[in-house]
Each structure stands twice: as structure tokens, then as C-alpha cells.
Amino acid sequence: MTLAAAATHPTDPAAGQVDTHCPYCALQCGMTLRTGARTAIAPREFPTNAGGLCQKGWTAAALLDSPARLTTPLVRVAGELRPASWDDALDLVAGRLRDLQAAHGPDAVAIFGGGGLTNEKAYLLGKFARVALGTSQIDYNGRFCMSAAAAAGGRAFGADRGLPFPLTDLAGADAVLLAGANPAETMPPFVQHLRGAAAKGGLVVVDPRRTPTAEQASLHLAPVPGTDLALALGILHAAVADGHLRQSYLDERTTGFAAVWRIAAAYWPERVERITGVAAADQRRAADLLARARNAYVLTARGTEQHATGTDTVSAWINLALALGLPGTPGSGFGCLTGQGNGQGGREHGQKADQLPGYRRIDDPAAREHVARVWGVPAASLPGPGRSAYELLDALGTEGGPRALLVFGSNVTVSAPRSAHVTERLSGLDLLVTADLVLSETSATADVVLPVTQWAEEDGTMTNLEGRVLLRRKAVDPPEGVRTDLEVLSALAGRLGQPEDRFPADPETVFTELRAASAGGIADYSGVSYGRLRAGEALYWPVPGDDHPGTPRMFLDAFAHPDGRARFVPVTHTGPAEVPDAEFPLRAVTGRVLQHYQSGAQTRAIGELAAVVPEAFVELHPDTAARAGLAEGDLARVASRRGVMRARVRCVGSLRPDVLFLPFHFPDRQRANLLTNPALDPVSRMPEFKVCAVRVTKEDGAA
Ligand code: SF4
């Protein structure tokens, strides 16, 4: 099947059938939405899912007519959210924003976006912040998701595209090393792309838990949480010591190996075994499997990235891949698995604190000139970089911090680290506004809630985990009373004094402007158009012109640094920001389950999914549970230095006795993020979601 052919399936809204993509993760599985008396979903052949869907995708239509949908603006009056007209709600928001900025300056208003927003929304949100509000205070939940991998990819290769090759290339691999990824639960149709490597005995999975993905591995390496960087150094050491260094590739395509080896030379496998708990023989076997493969890939995901050393940890995996000559080599490579639906496009078009559209830096004078010209404003009027996501949330309502926050496509009350503190910061605001489908936990505390459309109710583009731009078409009318995020931004911009045509609400018009703003940038979409996407073209960025075919495989001729070479980056193991002690003797790892997506705001509203996993659970080794006086099904109290949460005990014999696992999709007292550590990676500002020190006891009902 060719890539282009795979995209061209008929869409016939008149016949009640629209080809679209799943609203959830970055695999963006192809599906057909059948409308009519009852809306239903059928899987569709598309290269990423090859006709498969997971349970989330199958049930996605349930949210379209869910009774949980918001259909009227809500305004808090005397402590209660009450229905209001759109005009009243928007007038109120615009008036309060103007007053707060007049009293405290432009940065008194902040914006928080999301990695599930379409490219058009991410773009217009960034423009709205910088032009309509003049604030530097904008960031998004992708900071909590992809930022470490993005930073490491940028510094090694000069450009960050999660997978710089089509996913289907994995089918030809003899070996794949997956570091911190559990696609068998997070994106099940992905797993079929690993079957070739698994069948050849070359699937290596790095994960402290024996996940369903690890069960399928030829080799499962289970490091102590927070020691992945040391493990990558150990495998690199083994590869070099066993004569697998690709010297000609290093000479022709890279710089900086000597500095990396000065560090890796001191991480021989036996030493690394003492740090990570992974047997030296297994480290050597992993190196051997990758090095002897004709085609091999190293892929990372959140398990190895969401650490206070996340960028350096990903750099360590990239160094291993470079030493073996994989990136930019046909049939081999390095990549990271983007999580959120538009986690790729969402990090390219300007909703990040330090960024302008096209993956440009906001502190680059040439980038500012270019984008300001497209926006019709002076470059000097654009603010500089703002605070990163956690730092922004931490500053809310404080002296010198934002006094108002507008949230689009995010549920920070559940998804931010140290979430009790974040909830407290939200309550210190003068104005909290959310745009939401359902009354999420964040919206429930807002002053104004604006009901907005979702995936199948609007047109928009998404960029999947391969950097392929997809057109998601409107299939059904939204419920009466609901508006699109673009309409909300357009209406607010008008009330803030912006010219009518500067903030269009039509997605295709916004995309046309995005093309111009991204032209010449790293993520160049100037040659992507709705017309080409409607015609079924498979366009992977960069697409720098109407006649350009797109770039399915990046880096084959050169990396994106000016000299065309990839950079080895010297990194060393320091360990997690917080280690267990007598008071908090266990390591907590957070993650996802198959039935829920992110904060669970959408999937918890779908009965079929909520019925399977209705509440938070904690996985414990049976011995650990017994020591705490706990048994299967008991309610446990899990505490860290930042808070306490409750979860139902599941005993898992394959888990390390010093580790417990918590899914992060649940609200209130079941929030795993009540525990997590906001220690930030100095490069990407990624919080350390993946490991913190905890203790577990039997729930006694005490606060
Ligand atoms: S959630 Fe991800 S894996 Fe599941 S159907 Fe949707 S896009 Fe596919």
C-alpha cells in the first residue's frame, strides 16, 4: 500500500459517512464516522493503524452526544456557575482582561493551551496571546509531555520531528529498542509495527514494569526508576567495547563523540548493573541486538523522558543510536513517540512560551520580523519568552505573576504535577476562564466556562507522530449553543480592539495564514494546503512549496544543523531529584491505562470506558502490600512530600518490590499528581512526573 493511496478513502457527508481520525492520541488512527440516527465509528485502513483501533477509538463517538456536554456559557455568580448568554460571557471576560492588564500590565493575563488542539487553534492561540493581549505568559500541556524529547532532538539533529520517518518503516527492522514506552496499552495498533523485530528476536523494551509491551519483548530491561540515563551509558559502553562503533558514520555525519566517550568509558556494564539493577549481560545483549541488526531503531517515550534529567536522558539514547550509525540511515533511525493527538503540531506553531510559528524561536530577531510581518504588527510589539508551564502555574496569583488565566484544551487541576499546590494557585486568580467540552475539574473551579466544539464537529488539521499533516473534517453539527475555539478567540480579539480580519474564525483561512507564518521555519508548512490534503496527499513536513512532495524521511542526506552533522551531547548520570528514604521508602511511577486518555476528562465521561477502569489503582508487589498490611482490593493511602492520594490495591508479582505504579487519569483524592515532584529539567522545563519517593499505608479515612 502506498502512503498516498492509503489516505484516499471516499468521504461522503451526504451519505452520512465521513473519513476522519481518532480524537485522542498521536497515532491518529484512521476511522469512518457514520452519522444518521445513531453516530457510530468504523475502523479505516490508514498506515498508522492498518485498520485497527483501540477501545478509546471505538467509543469516541459517545462523547459527541454525551449528556455531560456543556451547551451554554457558565458564569460564576455568588459562588455558583450559572448559565449566561455568549455575549454576556464574552463581554465579561474581555472587560476583566482589559481591567487587569490596565492595572497590572500585559503579563497579568496568561494563556494555557493543549497538545490536543488543532494546528489552527495552537497557531491562533499563540497569536492571540502575543498580539491581542501582548502577553508573554503562554505555555501548554505539551511541556508536560514532549518537551524533553523535543529539546534533545533539537540539539542533536537541529530539528525535532518525533518520528523523522514513516511508522511503517519499522516493519523492516530486525531490532527495535523501546525506552519508556508501553504502546500495547497507550496506542495498541502501533504494536503491529513491532512484530517484525519481535519475530526476529530483536524487540528490546526498557521499562521498570513488566507491561503488556514488555511481555512481548525479546529482552526486557527493568531499570530502577530514574536510572535510564545510566542504562543508556552502559549499553553504549558495551557497544563500543564489543567493537560495534560505526566509525565511518561518525567521521562523515557527526561531531562530538570523544567527549561522550570520556563519560561513557566510566560506565562499564557491571558498574551500571549496580546503579540500574539491569544485569551486565543483558546490557551487552541489548547492544549486540541493535549493532548486529541490518536495520535497527531506538525509540523513546514518556517513561524515559519525564524526568528532571529528561533532556539528558534522551540525549543518552540518541548518543547510543548515533554510535551505531542509525539516525538518518535508510531503514534505521532514532525517534520519540509523541503522545497527545496533536502533540507534534501543537509544539510547532507558537503556543509555547519560547516559540513563534514554524518552530521558530521567539528570541530570534529574524523570526520575529518574519512572523510580525505576517501578523501585520511591528516586531518590537511582540513580547519575549514567557514562563514554562509549571512555572506559569506556580506564579498564578502571586506578586508579579498573572492575575487571569485562560485555559484551552487542558485540565491542569488533574494533569499538572504537585496538583494540590496548582489548585491553590488557581484559586488565587482574579479570573479563571476555560473553554471546555465537559465540566472538567479545572472548569468546575473557573469563573467563566465557554462550551466549545470537539473533533468531529469542526474542520482542522492535526500533525501525527510521524510529522504527517492530516485534515480532520467536520462530520456532524455541534450541539446548539456551542462554538469553536477559533470563534471564541475571534470574538474575544474583536472585543479587545483587534481589527475584524486579524483573527479569522474559519479554519482554512487560519491555516492559510499559518502556512505563510511557518514558511522558511524548521516546521515549514508553506506547501501544505487543505486542497492537497483533501486530495489525499501524504504530506510530511517540511513542505516548503506548493510543488514540494513533503519529507517522509528526514536527515537522509544531512542533519538540520548548519554543517549538516548530528551532535553527540555529553551527558552523565545524576539520578532522580528525589530518592527514597526512611520516611518515603518506595518509588512511585505514574502512567496510563488503555481505557483512559490524559486527565480522563473525556474518557471518564464515556460509560463503556469508565466501567472497565472506574477508579484509581495502585500496583504493588504482593510482599510490599503485605508489609503495609494491604491485600488485593483494599483502599491504600499513598503519600509523598507533596500530598496524599487514595487508590485501590492491585498486587502485581512482576513489579519490583521497591516500586509502585499509579495511573494519572483520576480526579479529586485519586489524583496521582497530588504526589508528583515538580523538579524541572533545566533544559526543557519538564517536571519529574515519572518518579518520586512515597510511602503506602492502609487507608484509615484520615485526611
Ligand atoms: S487512542 Fe490512539 S491508538 Fe487508540 S484509536 Fe485513538 S489514535 Fe488509535
Poorly predicted runs of 5 or more residues: 1-9
Shape, please?
globular
Helix vs. strand class: alpha/beta
Strand order of the largest sheet: 5-4-18-17-16-6-7
As a whole number of angstroms, the C-alpha radius of gyration is 24 Å
User: Hey, roughly how much beta strand do the residues contain?
Assistant: 15-25%
**On the 0-100 scale, what is the average pLDDT?**
95
Individual helix count: 24
Ligand roster: iron/sulfur cluster
Number of E-state strands:
30
Helicity level: 25-40%
Task: Give the termini distance in whole angstroms.
Answer: 58 Å
Main sheet record: 7 strands, mixed
How do you describe this structure in short?
With 703 residues, the protein is of the alpha/beta class. The protein has 24 helices and 30 strands.
Report on the architecture of this protein.
The protein has 703 residues and is of the alpha/beta class. It is 29% helix and 18% strand. The longest helix is centred in the first third of the chain and has 19 residues. A hairpin with a 3-residue loop joins strand 14 and strand 15. The N terminus is likely disordered. The strands form eight sheets. The chain has a seven-stranded mixed beta sheet with strand order 5-4-18-17-16-6-7, covered by helices on one side. The N and C termini lie far apart (58 Å). It is globular and about 70 Å long. Helix 4 packs parallel to helix 20, helix 4 packs across helix 21 and helix 12 crosses helix 13. It is built from 24 helices and 30 strands. It binds iron/sulfur cluster. Iron/sulfur cluster (SF4) binds next to helix 2.
